[in-house]
Every structure is written in C-alpha cells, then in structure tokens.
C-alpha cells in the first residue's frame, strides 16, 4: 500500500512539473521604446515559432516549465538570443529590447528605409517633428486599398478629397481650406503644377507605390515655404538600404460599371499634338484633311482588364558609400461614370432655380499612369554627403463623354415621352506630366557645430490636350425612343488644342549653428531660396460645319458614321488670338532666420520668413483688354512660433502660430474671357493675395507600438480669401462670368481627434474633424418695384461656409494582422459632410455636394519566399456624387422627375461603380 502511494505521489509530482503554462512577452525598439510589429520569436521547448502582434506582443501556449532558449529577430535589427527559466505559473513579464543593425561608415549611420516606412517609424517622426504633422507609412500604403496618393490622402485626419470624373480622388482639401491653399513637395522640394489654370497639383498623378511615406504638414516653421494656409503635402520617395532589396507587384481587375454598359473609345494614335497653325504658320488655311478622323470614330466594346505593376530595386555599393534606388510604376485602368445633370436658371422673382433641361452623360476613360524614381547618394565621410534624385510622373487620360440633353419647354410631355434632344459627344486626350531633378548636399564643419545643406533644383510640369474634338447633333424622342438626326448648328464640330508648361529653376540654402549643447540645447538657423518660374500657355480652336447643301443631312440616312462627314472649316486660320495664349513669369526670393531651443521639458522654435514675389503676364494676342500686360510685386513678412511641452516621455502639448499667404494663379490674373461648355470664365487682374494668421494647439500621446491619440484645435483668420463666383459684367450686365475675387475676411476654426489602437491582431484607426467657417458674399436677387410693378435686381449679403469646406469629416479603418500566418486585412470607410461645390451669383442658389460615405477594403496573404497575394476593392457601396440646391421651385414638379428630397433640389448625380483588383507581390531583402 505504501509503495502504491509513493508511486501515486510520484505521478502527481511529474504531472505538476509537466503542467503546461503560457509564455507571454513584448518586443521593443531599444532606442525609441516603441513596440516592434512582426518580429519573429523562436522558442526551443520544443522548437516553435510565432510573430509579434500589432501591439508588439507574442504568446506561446502549453509551454513546459523549466529552462528554454528563445530568440527574437527582425529585419534591420540585431537578433537576440537568451536562455530563460519558465515557471509553473503563466509567464507574462518577458521584455526584449532590440538594437538597430545599422551599417556604419566612419560613424555615419546608414539605415534601411524599412524602418522609416513602418507605422512605428511614422509615429516616431510625428512625435519628434517641429511642426504638427500626420504621416502615412509606406507599409500602410502598400496594404491599403489605395493606388494613388490622392486616395491615400482621404485617410488622414482633417483631409477630404475632390473626385475626378471617374470617381478617384484628385485634389486634397486640408482642414476645410480649398486645394488652392496647400502646396505639394517631393522629398521636401516644391513641384510645379501641370494644371492649365491653377497652382495646385493633381495628386492622382502619383502612384502610391513609389512612396516611402506620405507626410502632411498642418503648420509651418520659418524654413518652409510660406504659401500654405491649409498645409503642405510631402511625398518622401523610397531610399537605399544597406542590403539588396527587390519589391515587385502585378495586379489586374475590372470596373463594375462596364458589366452593365459598354466602354466607348476611339483611336488616339494619329492625334496631332500641334495644331495646323503651329505646323504650317499663322497664315495657313486649314481644311478637314488637317484633322484626324480617328477622334470621331467611336467604338463601343467591353474594355480590357486593368493592368497594374511596379518594381523597385535598391542597394548600397563601395563599402556602403554609394546607394542606388531605381523604382517604376505603371497603371493602365478603364474607368468611367454615369452622370445626370439638370441645368437650371433663376427667372423673374423666383426665389429658387427652375430646371430648364436635363443631360445624361456617360464617361469612359482609359488612364495610363507612369511613375519613375531614381536616386543616387554618395557618402564621402562622416561630414560630407551628396545625392541626386529624379522623379517623373505621367498621366495619360483618354476620355469619351457621350451626352444627350433634353430641353423642357411647353411642348414637353413626360408621359408621352416626346422631346427635342441634343446629342453631344466629346473625345479628349489629356496628358499631364511632372519632372523634378534635385542635387542635394549635406556638410558638417567644426565638429558638427556648423551644418550646411543646399539643393539645386530643376522642375517642369506640362499639360497637353491635343485635338480635343466634340460633335453635336439634333435629336428626337418619340415614345422614349431616342434618334439622332441632323447636325445641331452652323458649327457642330470643334477641334481644340490646349497646352501649358511650367519650368522652375530654384536654389535652396540652409545653415545651422549649434550654440549650446547638453541639457539646454540651442541652434541658430538661417537660409533662403530663389526660384525663377517661366510659364507658357497656348490655346487654339477650329470650328467645322457641313456645307449649305448638306446642312440638314440625317444621321443613319445621309451618313452612317461621323467620319463620313464632309466638313468646311469656318475659321481656317484658327482662333489662337485669345486670352489663353500668354507667357508668364514669377520670381520668388525668400530668406528666413530661426532658432530652436530644447530642454528636458520644453522645445521652442521661432523666427520669421520674408518672401518677395514678382509675378507678371503678357498676352501674346491682346484683343482689347484693358491690361494686356501686368504684374504684381509684393513682400510679406511671415513670423511663426512653435512650442512643445513634454508632459511625460510619451505625452506632450504642441502649440503653433504661423502666418502664411496664398498667391493668385497666373490664369486668375489674366484679364481675358474664356468660353467654356457651360459658362464663361474671366480672370481678374486686380486679384490680391490672401494672408492668414494660423493658430494650433494639440495634445499628443504615443502610448505604444504604432499607437497614438491626437486631440487638437485650430483657428485661421484669412484676409482677402480667394473664391470663385458667378459675377455680372460691370459694363454689360447681361454677361455673366465665373471669376475669382477677394471676399473680405473669413474665419475658419475646428477640432480634430486622431486615434490609433492595436489589440494583438486587431487594429483600429479612427479620426474625426469638425470645421466651421464663415464668409460674406454679395448675392443678386430680384424684387418687385412697388411703384412700377416691374422686377428689378437687388444685391444682398449672404453668409456661407468657405468653398469646399465640410463641417464634418471622419475616417474609420478596422485592421486584422496575423504575422505568423501572413494575413493583413483592412476595411476602411471615409465620411465627407456636405460642402459647397459652386458659388452662385444668385441668392440661395449655391450648388452643394451631398455628404457621402466611401467604403474600401483590401486583404493580403503572405507565403514563404517573399511571395504574397492581395485583393483590393474600391467604392464598395457604389457611393455617388450628388449636387443639390437648398430649397425648391414648385415649377420643377412639371417635368416629371423626382428631384426634391428633404427640401433640396437635385442638380447632378454621378455613379462610378465598384472597382476590383487581384494581384501578387514579391519581396527580396
């Protein structure tokens, strides 16, 4: 019996010692204290492997008590190997601090971009930045649903985007300030815009996979250019690591829109990039044979699938002195939209607009986006480095817009389906490109006390719209059957050439002197820039029509295809003599002085920037304008002060004041008029720059791995804000122009919350911004004269928000990351509240965009050998863009359309369809 008891106790003891327990721990960066996501943890008890989660934690279950070996490894970090004692109870106290495995060259640390492109690196940069900043890391961009920089921008707090005609993001609005109030940088250098009218850069030009990270500056310091009332966007390109890195991906997909209808295209290969005027001289009389027939030869078919790919290769040579990066991206996509537009006008004493016609438009667009990036850097020694980088992006957009317009008049019967129609088809090829080349040097003298940084920059931007062709035909609707009949008018076919180029030569110089070191640090900085910008703009237009004996030819009877038409050029020498043919220059000289003081609890950066601007234009073919030549010369002093108070190692208060300006664009001060398809535009040579005082306060908490809580408030007081409105001509009151103007003083204030939190494999990214702005605009209304009984115009002031500003913007992204099994999943939603789309000259007739939610998703599965498969889905809810006027006119009910909802009248709706991609990625490093 005693022997049996002894055996029983022995078995119980063995069972107790063999009892399974848990082993938990955290992995941190030793320098920053931030958790490392995706580190590989190997336990030899027996051998098992796991990876750290989104919060840097790892866990092994059913671990035997006793001694065991554990190792932790991660790219660019030194591997940690330890022998540990595993206790019987759960072990959740293990902490590992990893050190960077940097390559050293004469005490210069050359680090891989793998760290700076991670979420942890992004949070570290945000925490230490002088200005208030938000950053999207390269890895976050890679696994997101977004293919262009514009779409990435919508994930950032306080940022909303304007869509282009196929539903993709194009321009960014920062904190309710229209796109005109921000500028765009590549590696810290401002780039020109290819836009034919304005300064702002279309961000859909840039494929997102070229970026190491995307930075958004919400405040400025004196060493940054001062024309950013809203903020600045900095695209940091990929860098050269110590080891060979190869990243490649290829994907394909389709737009849901073309499951339901055909894609319209034409042959653009024969397009003439120069007009007959340019090819043959100003006295040449053009004929139909001088124009391409392919732009009128439309094909209706199913488009090919998307083709998207990118490749980047980077390595260091010569004992790590020489670094080389080559990266390229190509995207060929087929997109479009279905649009319904209701034309309206204010008649008599109507308080609200009356719908006069309806246009249904189908857009079909083939977009070919090419991006190239190359960088070479050479390290002479620990004190001297030099680099040369080049960036080239090109977006070619081949678009067909097919439209039919129904005019509502007294004979229109929506029940019988009879109406007079006009069919308009436009074929347009737009090519935009930006090139930037920067030679940069970093130098240190006197034991690092004195630093010199310089850059020599050449940049160019081009926008080319060659042989833009449109044709109009009369039509008839009978029993809802639409037929195209004769040509609309005496000039039913137009051929248009538009082109503009910007060329910048710029030099930057920044000097830094270390005055104090130790607990109290003081740096004195000074520098400046000089930029010479040259712009040229060209416009030419030809009108073509049938001869008198064929004026009433019928489509399908007298001619079967538009290419069969025999046309006569009614203005054979062209129409190059217009206000869009001009030269312009801008010379900017700037200098700044600033200091940076740092102690254990405080960091203060202050100083002032002075910018001198000389901006002018010269109309090459003046046509009676009062100011065929003109220029604006002004100097601005822009002070700023930024302070950070360190509450703890992870929490701080960040406050800022800076003064900024917004210059008019060249096109905006050219005084001539331009006739567009739907309205006339005219510049304003008296347009003044806008100036703004900007205040910010933000509480910043960085509690752990890639986590943050940012709570802030901002206030902007803008003098002479620039906005576009419809205005009556001062001399000929019946002419209405869409023109820029200054509108007194505007106030813009708001609050932001930005929250990122991870729970092992689950992540949450959320932000919300409230913005409130007010500006007064003079509006026209009509009143009845009590004496005569006639209606007459009257002007009143109406208060409204700034153009493009939404009161509410929010983002919510849910993430799942399983580093052991190689999964990354993201579902992202972005909400943009109602905002003004177009400012009207008439009271209560501003055009508003309805608030909307856009939902996107992506998933990636990684396999061994650096291979991964991914899917992306955009606009899952098929969210439309809808425009409306507040209020309604009872007369609009007569057209038989359901346009009134919640007291608003629908004016336009655009549907884009869902878009899907599937592809694979390869990484070697």
What are the salient characteristics of this protein?
five-stranded mixed beta sheet; 52 strands; single chain; 925 residues; mainly beta; globular; 59% strand
Uncertain spans: 5-18, 103-114
What value does the average pLDDT take? Answer: 88
- Quaternary class: single chain
Count of DSSP-assigned helices:
8
Task: Give the tally of β-strands.
Answer: 52
Provide the helix percentage.
Answer: under 10%
First and last CA, distance: 66 Å
User: Can you summarize the main beta sheet?
Assistant: 22 strands, antiparallel, barrel
Instruction: Kindly estimate the percentage of residues that lie in beta strands according to DSSP.
Output: over 45%
The helix-and-strand class reads mainly beta
The radius of gyration is: 31 Å
Shape: globular
